[in-house]
Design brief:
alpha/beta; Rossmann fold; 6 strands
């Protein structure tokens, strides 16, 4: 059986959040561990967009420079292969949202995971241990 991992935006954001040192440490450790086998993890397009948006918010608050945003994003992008969604994820997201009472963005993320062959999604935003049609949620902070 093939395993593929994806990481939700919140985990990436915690790698930068010195106000949450325990979560920051766990997030960095998770990414370091997954980086040992980069072919077994992907970055989903939605996560890349959300992470860049968060970096831009840090920039607008004066927490990062424009150069730091670009460098940080390029470093993030270099970690794992990027997976772009196709139109099929929209219909899959309707189905997931309806059956599991998910938010719009969670249903989109899970649909993209399914399309990319992801079997484990690391996130603190969804129910840990829940299996959404073959995508299992793991909360790396518990």
């Amino acid at each position: 059986m093939s395993f593929m991992n994806a990481i939700d935006t919140n985990v990436y954001v915690y790698t930068l959040d010195a106000n949450e040192p325990a979560k920051q440490t766990k997030a960095i450790e998770l990414l370091d561990r997954l980086a040992l086998t980069p072919a077994e993890a992907v970055i989903l397009w939605q996560v890349a967009g959300e992470f860049l948006g968060q970096l831009r918010r840090f920039e607008s608050k004066g927490l990062l420079t424009a150069t730091a945003v670009e460098v940080g994003f390029q470093r993030f992008r270099a970690t794992f292969a990027l997976r772009l969604p196709t139109d099929d994820i929209f219909q899959a997201s309707f189905d997931l949202r309806s059956r599991f009472s998910l938010s719009h963005w969670d249903s989109m993320l899970l649909a993209a995971c399914k399309q990319a062959g992801v079997t484990t999604l690391y996130s603190e935003d969804m129910a840990a241990g829940m299996n959404y049609d073959g995508v299992v949620i793991v909360n790396p902070f518990v």
